[in-house]
Each structure stands twice: as C-alpha cells, then as structure tokens.
Write a structure and sequence with these properties.
Structural class: mainly alpha
Largest sheet: none
Number of helices: 7
Mean pLDDT: 81
Low-confidence stretches: 76-81
C-alpha cells in the first residue's frame, strides 16, 4: 500500500499514452455516474481495435496492475476456476490477441480466432468485476483508485498535447 501513489501515477501516465483526452473523460464520466461495472461495459463497447492497436487490451494490462491490492481476487474458489487463474487467463488472451494483431494480414481461421479471443476476454473481464463487486468496500476502493487514476491520466493527456 505504501507504493499506491506511485502505481496510480504510473498507470495514469500509461493510460494517457493509449487513450486520448476525450476517451478518458468519457470513461471517467461513466465511472463517476454509473460505477465500475458500467465503465467497463462502456469501454468494451466504445473503445475498438484501431490500426492494429488493441486499446482495451493495453488498458486492461495497466488497470489490472491494481488487482494485487484486493485479496478477494487472489483466493481460490474451491472447485471452480480460481481467481488467479482468471487473471492469468486474461493475460494469456491479451497476449494472444496482441500476437494476432501484429500479423500483416489474417486468414479466415485467424479472424475467427481473434473474434473468439476478444469475446472470451470481454466475458472474463466482466466476471472479474462481478467478483470484485461482491465486497462493497473493495468495490468502492477500486472505484476511488480508478477515478484518481483517470483524473491523472486526463492531466497527462492534456500535458502531452492530446486535444
């Protein structure tokens, strides 16, 4: 916890490298008005893959730097897939999507694979956030961290000259 401010600053700067000021403002508005889950649903709907760049995947990689702060996401769930396994699977999916996007041209099989990986990733993200929302204290703490991070990201984007 003593490195939380550093981590928030680092993630905010990285988000400003991925998203423009307008995208950050919209995410922040949805987060403030409707909550964490709504923000992610909005992000999944509005932030698309452009020019071989998976902004959602990059955003996920940065935002999930905070998940180690939440013990509820580190415990095993017994017979079902463990929460650590979900986070590892999410990282694998992001890596797989990134590898496919690096290719110059995708064949039909690869296009289907990419689409399926994106669907699975989106479903997994929503499951992780549903799990996080089972504890109101964790959810509110995570929301506060995200708000602070997005506010700093907006400042970074403005300072970088992103209009």
């Amino acid at each position: 916890m003593d490195k939380l401010e550093y981590k928030i600053n680092e993630v905010a700067f990285n988000i400003a490298q991925i998203l423009d000021k307008n995208e950050i403002n919209k995410l922040l508005g949805v987060l403030a008005n409707d909550g964490v889950y709504a923000m992610w649903v909005y992000a999944l709907d509005k932030i698309k893959i452009e020019d071989k760049k998976d902004k959602i995947g990059l955003l996920i990689n940065h935002i999930f730097n905070f998940l180690d702060l939440f013990p509820i996401l580190k415990e095993n769930q017994g017979e079902t897939e463990g929460k650590d396994d979900k986070i590892k699977r999410l990282q694998e999916l992001n890596n797989g999507i990134g590898e496919l996007l690096k290719k110059e041209k995708l064949n039909d099989k690869e296009k289907i694979e990419l689409k399926n990986k994106i669907k699975e990733r989106n479903k997994l993200i929503l499951e992780i956030f549903k799990e996080l929302s089972k504890d109101i204290d964790n959810l509110l703490f995570f929301k506060e961290i995200l708000e602070r991070t997005l506010i700093l990201a907006r400042y970074h984007a403005k300072a970088l000259g992103d209009d």
